[in-house]
Model the fold of this input.
Amino acid sequence: MTFFRIAMLGVGNGFCKSTYHNNALLEAGNRLYLLDCGATAWLSLHELGFGFDDISGIYISHLHYDHCGGLEEAALYGAYAAGRKMKLWLPEPLRDTIWDHYLKGTLHNEAEGKLGLADYFDVEWVSEGEPFVFGPGGEVRAGLPAYWLRTRHVPGKFSSSLVLDRRFFYSADMVADTVLVQRLARDGVRTFYHDADFGTSPVHAGFDQLCAYPAEIRRCMLLMHYGRRPEGLLQSDLEEMKLLRQHEWLEW
Done:
């Protein structure tokens, strides 16, 4: 078992200003990593007392601006201020889209020979289920093993979730999926960081849907992406689930 800790950089959706975008700061092997890098990620890191030089790498789950809108800053700061390429783990299905359809308009620079993603980042493409490591040199013994799996979010668009150390699930963005979470629990996952929507969203897990998960799953579930805590919501209303709080470190 590899011990690690996580602080949510934000627990809001793409439009929530008070609790920022749903991204996380992961500490493993005495190094810090970002789980997604939305448009508010660097501001939130600054508020925690960290910056680019403290981060060893970034994992991107999908191409929505609240999950990858901070990549331009990472690329430009790395190239022109820090003088290093940030490690960037990317799911293989993003290979044909992240540069040509997302970053190229900002970062393409013929004058300086910066013509692709690898000119700004130390990129590692990862296939579904393929293990990779948050840690020095990518060595399992020195870091935290992980793999990604495709999960359902916006129809027709790729989105992924992470499993850390085969016992911790981080949903990023997904709709409710009882079959998936039960399978993961059978495979040894004991903690679920799951996005939740207290309103009505067709592309996120609604709170009422999460309440329909089996009790043994709900007891292991911590909620994110909910934005602001609804007025009058009590712990007894959460069906044994808990709300994650922005900038609070939890150890696992």
Observations:
- The chain has seven helices and 14 strands.
- The mean pLDDT is 95.
- The longest strand covers residues 144-150.
